[in-house]
């Protein structure tokens, strides 16, 4: 696994946490994990992440990619349209980690774009 860690200035921690707690509500939980930087000169450190699990009350169960893409395309939550989040996530992945190919994410992106193109006709 890999990821990107962001350091939040201590004076902003409370505001950022409140924003994330609001944005990630609805079955996501905050957990602490150990982050191992790619630069081995930097010591591992703990950080908080939000995860959704199968215990999430909104977890819909296993689905094939076409079903997932349709759900993402059609649904919207308090933080906005799910398809906007997906498209922004895929773009961020390409920018932040150009050497990483997330097959699942990019396949969903392609399928959602196909659904978008069908409605533009």
For the largest beta-sheet, the strand count, sense and barrel status come to: 2 strands, antiparallel
Number of helices: 4
Average predicted confidence as pLDDT: 90
Spatial extent as radius of gyration: 17 Å
* SSE pattern, N- to C-terminal: HEEHEEHH
Strand content: 15-25%
Runs in which pLDDT lies below 50 for 5 or more consecutive residues are none
Topology:
Layout: H1 13-23, E1 28-35, E2 45-52, H2 65-74, E3 76-77, E4 80-81, H3 82-96, H4 103-119
Antiparallel strand pairs: 1-2, 3-4
Task: Give structural notes.
By secondary structure, the protein is α+β, with helices and mostly antiparallel strands. The protein contains four helices and four strands; from the N terminus they run αββαββαα. The chain has a two-stranded antiparallel sheet. Helix 3 packs across helix 4. The chain is globular and about 50 Å long.
């Amino acid at each position: 696994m890999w990821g990107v860690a962001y350091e939040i200035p201590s004076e902003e921690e409370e505001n950022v946490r409140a924003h994330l707690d609001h944005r990630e509500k609805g079955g996501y939980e905050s957990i602490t994990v150990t982050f191992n930087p790619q630069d081995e000169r930097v010591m591992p450190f703990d950080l908080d992440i939000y995860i959704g699990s199968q215990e999430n009350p909104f977890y819909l169960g296993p689905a094939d990619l076409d079903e997932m893409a349709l759900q993402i395309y059609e649904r919207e939550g308090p933080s906005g349209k799910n398809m906007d989040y997906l498209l922004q996530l895929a773009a961020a992945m390409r920018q932040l980690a150009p050497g990483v190919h997330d097959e699942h994410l990019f396949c969903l992106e392609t399928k959602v774009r196909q659904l978008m193109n069908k409605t533009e006709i």
